[in-house]
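Schema walk-through. Below, the input block comes first and the output block second. Nothing else is stored per chain. Lengths vary across the set, and this one has 286 residues.
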Amino acid sequence: MQTRTIGAQTVSEIGLGAMPMSIEGRPDEARSVATIHAALDAGITLIDTADSYLLEPGETGHNERLIAKALSSCGGDTSTVLVATKGGHVRPGDGSWQLDGSPSHLREACEASLQALGVEAIGLYQLHRPDPEVDYADSLGELRSLYDDGKVRMVGISNATLAQIRQAQQIIGDPLVSVQNQFSPAFRSSEAELRFCADQGLAFIPWSPLGGISDAADLGSSFAPFAEIAAVHGASPQRVCLAWLLAKGSHVVPIPGASRPETITDSARAGELELTAEELSRLSAP
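--- output ---
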């Protein structure tokens, strides 16, 4: 597998979105751990999570603890693995997604994530989503404070507009290394942010790059060019989709969600797929 960079750290060009292992419809723990081990065996060195990936009340940090368990039990060297987590979303366990971007909550969330992951400093800590009830500058300022205090090594933001990325650059400065926005064949409205990140030397991390948990399996039937080009290459439409995203720039690091070893192993091979200019044009057409 080829590599890309997030800040000063080299990572695999495809990451693992671990959310499906902890929310509704999640598999048993043994299969989740096996999926993470399969990702590591395939050369994946970026794992994305959040403290709010949970199902039941009182499970805050479920996904983070699951990742920590898988890393500690893999039997290999995990020193090059970057675990990126997020704070700012709150899930009370009733299925709802709520926001709390207050500085006090972000600090508490970061402290809890440190314990859940079992690390002294979080590799990449991201603001999950802007909270309209909190001044965005206050949320960003707390991320910078967490960096200054040595609790996080790099900072990212998620679900951000161009204006918010620029504001984050001003407040956080050099520790800001990434933007994680939704981007997929079905959701392309972050194209401007993707291009801006390339110009600014920021990594762009597309979340739900295959369309989300409920739609990823049907990507080929929903978007015919992906299935047609997949048939030509003897690959899955999902792998074609990830190769299409990788071709958008060397700063793009997709994080497909997975809850089975087979799917993340297939996704990890996206970098092997060489798409022609004509194929990329077809895939990029509205």
